[in-house]
Amino acid sequence: MTRIPRVGWIYAIAGGSLVKFGFSDNVKRRLKTLQIGSPVKLVLLGKWRGHMDEERAVHRRFDFLRCHGEWFRRDRAIDRYVAQKAKARLAPPSTTGTELASLVAEALEGGTSPDWRERADLALRRLPVDVKTRVGKLPGLINRVHDGG
To answer: For the whole model, what pTM was predicted?
Structure first.
């Protein structure tokens, strides 16, 4: 007997620098439920019709960005994928002090991941203007420290 997959919604919900991919019959209700236990504001990035097997395929596709369970580090690849699947305009990712602190720490440790400069630059561009003025010369300082200057 052939199993007929249950059709519902595959969704992408962002919270800070993370994205959760999930499956639900009622995405609005699911977002509310997730928000109750979240310390950060959650935003629906997009949703599209699909079945649970497709949701698992999305998890496998972005396994290299997996942080924990169904939560993934938000990345341009995820944003492009969600935009293409949902044909939706994405909310801009937020930058938190924690994200900046981890990027600075990574820079001080020698920039362990190959794209740390790009990620640091992107994080700094996402900051509100008033914070950018207080950050001042941070990008140059990070580069000097990383390059041994």
So the answer is: 0.58
